[in-house]
Fold these 4 entries.
Entry 1:
Amino acid sequence: MPPSPEITRPPEEAIFVNGPDSLLLKPSQLWGEMRSEFATTKSLAWRLLWRDLQGQYRQTLLGYSWAILPALATTVIWVFLRAQNVIRIDVPEVPYALFVLTGILLWHTFHEALFRPLEMVKNCQTMLERVRFPRESLMLASAGYVLFFAMARLIVICGSVFLLGNRVPATLALAPLGLLALVAFGTALGILITPLALLIRDVEHGLRIVMQFMFFLTPVIYPVPDQFPASLMIYVNPVAPLLVVTRDWITLGPSMYTVEFARLSGVTLVGLMLAILWYRLSLPLVTERLRA
Amino acid sequence: MQVSLPPDVCLEARGVSKIFCRHLKRSMWYGVRDIARECLGRRGSRSELRHGEFWSLQDVDFQLQRGESLALVGRNGAGKTTLLKLIHGLARPDQGYVAVRGRVGALIALGAGFNPILSGRENIYIAGAVLGMRSAEIDARFDEIVDFAGLGEVIDAPVQTYSSGMAVRLGFSVASTLEPDVLLIDEVLAVGDFAFRNKCLQRLNQLRTKGVAFILVTHAMTNVVQFCERALWLEKGRVKLDATSQEVAARYVAEHNPGAAAGGLFGQTAFNHDRLISTRVTVGDIAGQNPCPVRHGTDGVIHFRFETREALSAPNVSFPIYRGDGALMTTLATIARMRSIPSRNNVYEGVVRFGPVPFLAGDYTVVANLHDGTEHVFRDAVGRLRVTGLPEIGWGYVKLREEWSFPQRQAA
């Protein structure tokens, strides 16, 4: 074997202590560990993201178009049902095909953001049980994965606006911000449920059923209802303002629900930080129970 | 918790205990409660077991010096892997603490992070990143990793086209490139073919000479003696013996002797074969004292008599001899010398003298096989070959006569 090239390593004389006390009792140590792991977290997340994007569609003929095809198929069905008067949905000012395609692509982005953290952790379960690495890198890679496909969908949406839309609103430039908020909200919720869903499998099964109902209780294929109590949907369902405002920016212009959007985005930002803290504290206690 | 370690100590475990629960559903609920206590800042040391829980580890104390190699031995479920997980930071102790100075590496999950659809080249970077290597480190060592794994031109093929041995070699190659301060090794020395195992052992020796401290989990006492200065024997989660590897290995082998192993390894099914009426096999030395010890370097004898209900068309006998840990030492077989053995009235009787016995001292299990062509008419552990006259633990399984000469000395 040829002699190994000498690698310069920083002196790592820090003492790592693994004890039973809650990490919350040592906030400075917790923060210090998170800060010192940040560079590793970032580079590992980048590698994992690259791995997943490279591997996702390599063994397919249609490749990345699979990220769009389900939404296109669903759109065709809803447009057909409406054209046949099976359903009656009035959407003023925007062609229904553009309205429903945008809504479904945004919904798919939120859905992916919600479940991707759990899928990521499940895919990496063996790694989690046997290798010590910054666990946050899985969440960062997960968010990166969702954002990548969100941006790919945005390109399709922009193309649809030019092809199908009556006009191209200036607020289309805000669409990435709307998508970012939607991804952040979905990811925060996804990170919150991941440790529990990993421990108790009912959580995932239940959530998948709930999300099927939520699709119909969110203004995805129809506009925000005017009549009470359905009109409360925009205030009660947290996905609604994020999705509606982003779609308004893409297809119409300024939205009347921007305040709700801003308020929810702020909550999301705080929620995301708390979710990461919760994930860091709880995941080791879950993984040690997966295969004792 | 502030812990200070003496400068020459790289790992310290003090009063380490770990609780697990065997009931799946209870474990789920305990998990939820533990998470709640952790997030409320109320989790801490505990000594009370909840319903269904047990101590997987209890009061484990030890220190590891820089460059020292320690073997963890014990039966399955003794707590060896749990202790490795606590050292690696993959699980949290319920009492006590583990303090580690410097970087911990692990040869445990070979190929962690591999995506089988990607090429070996791509997976080297992924697995390296998972193990904490920087891109520059992987770049600098890339050729060495590929060369060590012996993959050559297939490095750009998808890993799913590799054989399982090739994938393991690649995983080991990446993981062993790390130069941690403490290296944890869990039974990976049993993977790969002979040539690769040899390369693995050379790599571990290289790391040891660089001052890397080892913790090796193994059931092979030869590895314990060959690689480790010290050994920790765990039994039911407690330290049974912390001593030199020679002492621990000798006492471990003595306790788990072949007599005990014979039942587990080969079953207790004698005399219940339909085609067999009786079996008698005795093992001993040439004086015919049965059973009696055979001295190292002398001959042994096996007398056998099998009686069957009907004549066998191609009868043969063989006697594999096993060590206590199940390693096959040798096989005495008639098939190598004759097509079938003679018989009279369905009785197959004979004597085999073998030797000189080169084995190290200890108890070996003799299994008797009576074949009819390729069919087993009888197979069971039938006796114990006790070898005396040498230590039980050495460098390998056998001791040969050695004659050394040194031309330089004659020239001088």
Entry 2:
Amino acid sequence: MISLKNIERFYNQGLQKAWVLRDISIDIEEGSFVTIMGPSGSGKTTLLNIIGMLDQPNNGEYYFFDEPVHKFRERKRTELHKHYIGFIFQAYHLIDDLTVYENIETPLLYKNVPRSQRRAIVADILDRFNIVAKKDLFPHQLSGGQQQLVGVARAVVGKPKLLLADEPTGNLHSTQGKIIMDTLAELHKEGITIIQVTHDENNIKYGDRVIELWDGFIKNDLKTAEALSASQ
Amino acid sequence: MLTNYIKLAWRNLIRNKNYSIINIVGLTIGLACFMLIMLYVNHEWSYDKFHGDGDQIYRVGLERKYPGRSRSYAIIPHSYGEAIKEEISSVEESCRLFFFGGNNFQFKIEDQSYEESSFMWSDSTFFKLFDITLLQGDPSQVLNLPNQVVLTESAARKYFGQSDPLGKTILPLNQNQPLVVSGVCDDIPENSHFKFNILISSSSLGPFLQQPNYLSFSAYTYIKLTENTDPEVVERQFPDLVVKYASGQVLNHFGVNYEEYQAQGNGYRYFLQPLYDIHLTSNLEAEMRVPGSKSRVYFFCIIAFMILIIACINFMNLATARSAGRGREVGIRKTLGSNRLSIGAQFLMEAILISLCATVLAWGVTSTVLPYFNTLAGKQFILQDVLQGRFISMVIVVALLTGLLAGLYPALSLSSFKPVEVMRGQLIHSRQGRSVRNGLVIFQFSISVFLIVASLFVYQQWLFTQNKSLGFEKDGVINLNTTGALDRIESESFKNELLRLPNVIAVGGCNSQPGQGYFGISFKANGANEMTTGSGLIVDEGYIECMDMEMVTGRSFSKSFMDTLSLVINESAAREMGLEDPVGKRVTSSDNFLNTVPGEVNNYTIVGVVKDFHFQSLHHKISPLFFVHNQRSLLGAGIDNQISVRISSEDVESTLASMGSLWRSMESEVPFSFTFMDQEWANLYEKEITTRRVSSLFTIIAIFIACLGLLALAAFTAEQKMKEIGVRKVLGASSLDIVTMLSRNFLKLVIVSILIATPLAWYAIKQWLTNFAYSIPMQIWPFIIGAFLALFIAFLTVSIQSYRAARISPIHALKDE
């Protein structure tokens, strides 16, 4: 599904290059649940953004379903991104002025889904995430866990093939975090591919593969079980 | 503490350069406009204020009543000046001025010929009444005798150079009596409702003044009341005066006694106009100079304030919009023990500092653009006007008020933040702040839309006045100004010679041109009870044809007839006299100069009716007009001293050249001088042209400042919504979606503005158009254009900002703190 070849990402700092990612090559199968780990500044989020087509590598090749994303123009990338990828953020990033319902509806608006279909899809999702009662509330009226639940709902409402989660439980306490992770696990079971960035060891076990970054390089790329035993 | 405030305010200005620049630029332009308009308005208000006792001086105006209508004149019968002074004890002094527009005064000094366009006749009391300083000569002697003149200082220098003009003589052409210079006075200030370079003693006007006249109007009559006299008390005594003096003449001329005459609906109502108010409020028939207009002064004042308010609103909006950023500062200050007052003072100081900066800059701008403004507004301001103490103090007051106005709301709103809330990053105010900002943006754009629509109408009306068929053809007519130098026989042969020139189509003589003002004249149809007063024009046989006027019935004057006692009238005159079939009807006049033998009334016969044409600007309805044949008019009103030539549009230069050489072959002393009639006609609309120019310029400026504010606000909104934009882009929004999202709210505000401004503009324009006797109808399209223009400009402004915001990569926007 995803094939990264020799991806490099750097920023120009005066005359020097500040490297963020170096020589990253990964293949990710459809249906897998990958965890990206690493200390702060190791390039996790940048990698996630490149995979999510929000950021572009300076060098290297990126194939998404065998399509050469690195050769695409922005418009084409946006199209791909819009139809295949959902995003979950650590800080939820719900739109303050929109209700829960409207927040979830937004991706469908940009996919030009007709109104009646939108209503059905959103109703479905609300029902599924058990937040029907909250649909007319604004984000600031919800707890953090609830907000992130809405964030997940919004990420999957467009039925993406790939779900990218950047520290989805980073701002939550453990019970709330568990609910979110359980939800992700359930989505994974349904066949969606998930890539998560996390610090939290507890979250690793939900996935089947762990990629560990160190200063922009891949340090380890292991099955979850191996990774867990290695760290112990 | 104060220096601390100023220091902090200054740092804030420097730190937020972009906002400061937008604020200062907006305020500078706003204040500069304000200063310029105030210069103009000040000047308009200052008219005649230089007369020290001006509050005691009044001009006597006349409302002449006819059955069912009336007309008001600035001139009254000449014998009233004396009568009023004698009869009413609280009248200290009176003075009459005589001024006949359109004529040039031609004279010789030694062997040199001159021509002067600005001259009047006056009673000897002139220098007692008016504060014009007599530099040479004895105030009680200068105008006492016939044939005395007073020159203004610059006229004296022009005509006599360095030599002492006192006692020197001026010889008018076509007159034997020389005039003697008896005094020299200060130049008449520009802000005076009368103006002259030469002032001639009224007794020089000859016998016409010696005959008592209480019926026909000729004199601008001024009276000075004793201190603390209520003018209304004086006005109340006028009716008795009219009965006493005029009723005899009424009986003589109309054959009815005055009571009966009044019962028919006729009458004379005299009223007083304060000297100080004449320029701005009086717009009577026969004003000496084009009067100002109070409504225009108000209109300009309103524009000036509007622009200033728009600029202030920018400041308020930006200050409160940024309050989120400064909330933290307020919170910290409050926890450190500063109270609301000192925080408010801090923000206020910032506003005042900005407004003072802007004032200094605006001063520079005003001084720089002064020459351009002069051309625009038709005034002659100089740098000193901007440096006057009064003006400076006014500007400082305005600057402080501007700072207060702009700073007060932000100061109040920001200083009310509760420290705990703002430190936690919650801004309860933001929603309320936003609605205030929206309201202010709506206000700004309402003004802009209003101004756009109004300017379009002003322009349309101007075009209309330029293009409306006047009833005569003004294009292609050359007016020769100096032909009064010729005597009658010379004049006839000159006209004949002109006609022989190639490219000369027609030639006509008259005493005054359309737009220059005609003298008043009245006729009574035989058998009718009332006189019809209208305008009089002395013409020769060629004039009506030369001007391409259309004869409705009958004939124009002709050399094949004996036309000395013939009249040609216009349609309005026929209508007002109640003549269904005017040709051949006989009429009489009470005017002295039409009855050559005193006491004997001549019968005139109407020979033709000319189609109504506009001999005044389109502010005035067409009124009755009587053409008198040039051989009849020997006295008083002058002769047909102007010659008009209609030429073909081919080879205008050489036609003018051959006319010039023809002139020099006949008259070597007076230079050849001419004007194009269409240009002269355009001068009648000076006021409209000024209004049009000023309103369109300030409209553009107002919109510019409003857009400047919108630009900053859009930038701010984009900045504030950075996160949301990022999220939406991650959710699949395209740049276009983002631009639409950001622009939509602003465009909604503009649409609301359009809805508010349209009915107001409709009403105001309707009012304005009533100033014109002939005006364009109300139309929809300027409103549509105005609306679209406002939307378009606003969209352009906002979308530039929005597009920039939409291009920013979402990963930057979403980076967590």
Entry 3:
Amino acid sequence: MNTRFPIALLFLLPTLLGLGVFTIYPAIHSVYLSFHSVAPFSSELFFSGFENYTELFSSPEYWQSLKASCLFALFTVPPGLLVSLFIAVLLDAQPYVKTLLRTIFLLPVGISTAMAAMLWVFLFNPTAGYLNYFLSTVGITGPNWLADPLWALPAVSIATIWKAIGFNVIFLLAALTGVPKELQEAALVDGAGPFRRFWNITLPMISPTLFFITVVSVIHTFEGFGQIHILTQGGPADSTNVLVYNLYRDAFQNFRTGYASAQAIVLFVIILIATLIQFSVGRRRVHYG
Amino acid sequence: MKKIFGLLLCLFTQNLFAATDIDFWHSMAGAKGKLLEDIVADFNKSAGNAGKFNVKLQFVGSYDEGINKLRTSLMGGKAPHIVQIYEIGTKVLIDSKAIRPLQDFIDKDKEFPSDQLLPQILSYYQLGGKLYSLPFATSNPIIYYNMDLFEKVGIKTPPRDFAELKIIAAKLTNPKEKITGITWPLHSWLVEQAVARQGVELLNNGNGRTSPATEVNYLSPETTGFITLWKEMVAEGTFANVGRGWDPAEQNFLAGRSAMLITSTSNVFDIVKDAKFRIGTAPMVKAKLDQKGGGTVVGGNSLWIMAAKPEVEQLGAWQFMKYMASKDVQSKWHQNTGYFPIRKDVITELENSGFYKKNPNARTAIDQLLSSEQSLATSGALMGVFPEARDHIETAVEEILNNKATMDVALKKAKSRTEASLTRYNKMNTKR
């Protein structure tokens, strides 16, 4: 072992302490709690074995919730990535207004989730909101965004994508700036068109960043809570009742700490698996220059 | 030496006369929170208090957040003296045994104005003849209507029963101008109110008041009747379904997009002030005109004294409770919010001073409250799993309105979900 290890540990201590108290201990305690039921409004624990887990997996609401979470990831991650990439590429080609536009796109990131969601509540109002007003000017009758089980999840996804774009664009812009000019020029000399150059040079060069954003976005959507709490509260008809929201309800409205802890453990495993899959795909597809 | 002695004297006397802190956790945001701050500051300065107690107000977020903070604080032994809890938290707090029933203090203190408090409000917070907490901000649902739009189509009076509501909503609906007849929040509270309005209990065992509830009456004709009306109006396009939460429906009405709104009276002054049209108010509709009995249930919140603190401090909290129930505070709170006062004499006084002539809309909810027949139905349902039950009802209504399930299927599912929760709650409750 390195002789400087104790000193390194000393330097790491503040972080380890924080992580230990606020992350690691609660996580371990959740595992413990998930095997108990807790009396409402007290800390009395009653051991209940795997009861919480068996109830969880036999509950149709939980499976619906898992489905909602997967759909939510599907509606936010790929479209969010495509839109961000599109904007980043356009911005990269515009050296003069880049800084200004970059700031504008980053603005939503700076707004608190609750504030941003409140704005969308106003925008999504089916009769008094701007969104349907603009749609009506081009002759489209807008849907009943947040009150229609078919449209609620897409609506929440739109609000989520809007909020996340700035973050993605910043990272992608940095990556695009890092693509060596010589490679582009060499391809140009070889007679490659703009699409070819993008596909064969730009994309592989920025793939580590794309990969990073994908992983982060997937984790973020699985943990997305604020916008759902304000926009739909899991409704209509449980269509936006994603895993985290279901967990929140059981933990903080229904006072079922044990059952909610079991959900937290299952959610942890799901995110772990999703991330492992992405890494195994990423290993083959990502090009680390 | 003299200096040190003086300093010691100062420290000593300060300690001797230092006010005892009374922590008070509340959930009133915005203007209502500021008003509460003023009320508390007045108490701390008041001659009656004489500097003995210092009530420290702390905003703990929404009702849900407040009750959770209380729950964790009880585990950590850091609970406040007084806490404001929403009405549906009543059963959980009674069962928690972490509170002191207000009745304990009332019985020992003749100063408390028991005979001035409205029995219609007290009955919600009473169980087994004991008053558990002090009702503070109480409200019920009323109809708000846009008088300009009413005039335009030549309707003079607001609806009184389901049939009139349907006809009037249809008359007011104007697809060309994008105006729908009526809206209200997709909230279980309105279903509960509609059922009580018809004099029917929501839960078995005396609405959960004679013994803990084990069954729910979601399939009663009174429940299905109201949801049928709702669904029919959505299908006919005369009801604007704007989803969960209180804000969208209010926003819709204030933008002139819906001609009528059913919501809590707690915002009546703001709504009248913010509207760019003349507003009328009317009591919540009955099912049928000739229907007898029934009434509305009070919503809102109440103040609880926690049991963990030393007796002296609990008595300080009790002094503050008496102040909160005083005429001045009740009158001030009512005139600035829209929640109604809990005292008869405040209503009489404001009546005599001409306040209700100037603000007739503030009177609607009070009349409705006073005319409610007192029964287990209008006292309101008590259950420890109310937040869950509300979610089950709301999910069922959403499925029904959006044709995702039939009325029977959706309500049966909601019923079995709530009853499963009740069984679990009752089981856990007997364990402790």
Entry 4:
Amino acid sequence: MTSITLPLYLERRLPRLQAQALSFAAGFALLVLSARVAIPLPGTPVAITGQTFGVQLLALLWGSRPAAALFATYAILGTIGLPIFAQGRTRLNPVTAGYLAGMLLAAWTVGKLAERGANRSFPRAFGACLVGSAIVLGGGFAWLSRFVPAESLLEKGLFPFLPGDFLKNTAAAWIASRAARRFEGGSSR
Amino acid sequence: MKALRRLTLIALALIGTQARPAVEIAFVEVLGPDGRPLRLEGNDLFGHVAIRTPEGWLHAHPARGVEIVEDLSPFGRVVVKAVLDHEAVPDPAVYRAWLGRPYDFDFVWESETRFYCSELVAKLARVPPLPMSLDDHWPVALRARRGEPGLSPDEIFRALRRRGARLDWEGPCRSIWALTLPTRAS
């Protein structure tokens, strides 16, 4: 059974063009604002950022195609020099590029799971977020291994991000499951 | 779906292009006890230099020796970063072996038991040394070594510009000699 995503919800209430513009603007703002939250960590070139939260929420609420299209647009604009990447960077950090590529794939995958009903309850949404996290961390970790010695790879590219990912996934799944129930017209309480 | 596939491919291609390794070198303005920028040679702009590694900024600290730090601001103000796109980042196997080695106050290029800041960066970025000029404010013992191989941060800066480095300016250079930059580049 297909879930109703935010773009579909808006299209039911607004003229198509207006709904698409609003959906795109809101999604893009979510990505840009979430990337503004960044906590640099000592001893690792990778910072904890709100980007993963933004991507998971985007995918759960927007669905696969809009989420992937929005993230691809965000990545293109960021790589050509707009200061929209984490910490307001105007340039992609080569070391962390794998995380960005992972987010693009995660946006589509988690969006696909959401369209199949993963955003209808908190546990299912959380499960979808775990899949997304595995893709992001897997991509980031694999790319980071080109730069960081193998013996310190886990402590620089994986372990510091697990607690934060757990919290971000919990928040994204909670928000998405409540919002998705609203889109369906059911009670969110 | 076709449009999404194209968009995704463009995004991945751009990420792939920019994710290629780059050498990044920070040129730092260091303030002396009088609050004025420290000058190593007459018209020099920079008092210190560091190179980016995946683990942070690698530099030779006069008190702590070769170390990796996250932030160079306690040491001085990063004025400009020179980026050599598509050049291999410093090899961890090489620079990790140098961590903890003391600062070389004698500026001996050949020795790798001690490092001074420019020597460390130049060896990792493959910048060849020049005969040292060492003007009259240096101690006599050092001045006696004029003509021996060595580099200052400004000489590395000029060498990187000649190699086509992209410059990311972090802020205005306070020195009046910054006005000479276009001439130096030519």
